[in-house]
């Protein structure tokens, strides 16, 4: 509720009626500890642990905000103002989740998946994984397929909540996302290994 209250109170009509005391006492705490802020940060932390590449994570982050724009006529909770999507979602919540997730991967010496076309070089930790999406048209389609599936699973969460009338705080939503996350971690690793073993066409 705090996130929505913050968005509502920043409209010009409400700005004329609020005092500085209300603005600085209630809004920061209600915004920072809102369930959607926590969901954004934890969600992008989990995605960073799965994907392990900042460039692709930023593509997915911006791509999902574009999907919110596309489907906001169907899903009421996708109706956000431009600064909510760009500043709060992408530049603050998603950035912090991506940053924390990549630091988690590095802390546990996890392999990062390189999506740029660098040559394979053995490192101290072993061979680097590389997606190399621009090595050929088939490889580009294979990496794009991963992005499309990723976005469909993410969008499916919101459509299921809407169609089945599941409230956002229902634990079923969280359990479903955790299950998908646990399935996706080894799946994306296997898909990366498959792409590394097959020659790009």
Automatic annotation (TrEMBL):
GO terms for biological process, alphabetical: phosphatidylethanolamine biosynthetic process; phosphatidylserine biosynthetic process
Superkingdom of the source species: Eukaryota
Catalytic activity: a CDP-1,2-diacyl-sn-glycerol + L-serine = a 1,2-diacyl-sn-glycero-3-phospho-L-serine + CMP + H(+)
GO MF term (any one): CDP-diacylglycerol-serine O-phosphatidyltransferase activity
Location, primary (coarse class): endoplasmic reticulum
Topology in membrane: Multi-pass membrane protein
Enzyme type, top EC level: transferase
First and last residue of the signal peptide: 1-20
Any single Gene Ontology cellular-component annotation: endoplasmic reticulum membrane
Pathway it works in: Phospholipid metabolism; phosphatidylethanolamine biosynthesis; phosphatidylethanolamine from CDP-diacylglycerol: step 1/2; Lipid metabolism
Transmembrane feature ranges: 81-102, 140-160, 172-189
Compartments reported by the entry: Endoplasmic reticulum membrane
Keyword Transmembrane helix: yes
Keywords, alphabetical: Endoplasmic reticulum, Lipid biosynthesis, Lipid metabolism, Membrane, Phospholipid biosynthesis, Phospholipid metabolism, Signal, Transferase, Transmembrane, Transmembrane helix
EC number(s) stated in the UniProt entry for this protein: 2.7.8.8
PANTHER family named in the record: CDP-DIACYLGLYCEROL--SERINE O-PHOSPHATIDYLTRANSFERASE 3 (PTHR15362:SF20), PHOSPHATIDYLINOSITOL SYNTHASE (PTHR15362)
Described purpose of this protein according to its UniProt entry: Catalyzes a base-exchange reaction in which the polar head group of phosphatidylethanolamine (PE) is replaced by L-serine.
Family: Belongs to the CDP-alcohol phosphatidyltransferase class-I family.
Protein name: CDP-diacylglycerol--serine O-phosphatidyltransferase
Organism of derivation: Aegilops tauschii subsp. strangulata
Lineage: Eukaryota, Viridiplantae, Streptophyta, Embryophyta, Tracheophyta
């Amino acid at each position: 509720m705090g996130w929505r209250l913050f968005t509502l109170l920043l409209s010009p009509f409400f700005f004329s009626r609020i005092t500085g005391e209300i603005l600085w006492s209630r809004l920061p705490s209600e915004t920072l500890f809102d369930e959607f802020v926590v969901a954004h940060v934890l969600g992008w932390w989990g995605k960073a642990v799965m994907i392990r590449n900042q460039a692709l994570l930023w593509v997915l982050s911006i791509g999902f905000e574009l999907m919110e724009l596309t489907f906001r006529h169907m899903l009421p909770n996708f109706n956000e103002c431009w600064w909510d999507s760009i500043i709060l979602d992408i530049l603050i919540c998603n950035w912090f989740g991506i940053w924390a997730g990549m630091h988690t991967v590095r802390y546990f010496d996890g392999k990062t998946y390189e999506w740029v076309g660098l040559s394979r070089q053995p490192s101290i930790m072993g061979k680097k994984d590389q997606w190399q999406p621009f090595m050929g048209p088939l490889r580009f389609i294979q990496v794009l397929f991963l992005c499309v599936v990723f976005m469909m699973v993410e969008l499916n969460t919101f459509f299921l909540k809407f169609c089945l009338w599941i409230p956002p705080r229902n634990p079923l939503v969280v359990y479903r996302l955790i299950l998908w996350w646990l399935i996706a971690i080894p799946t994306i690793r296997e898909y990366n290994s498959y792409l590394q073993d097959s020659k790009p066409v």
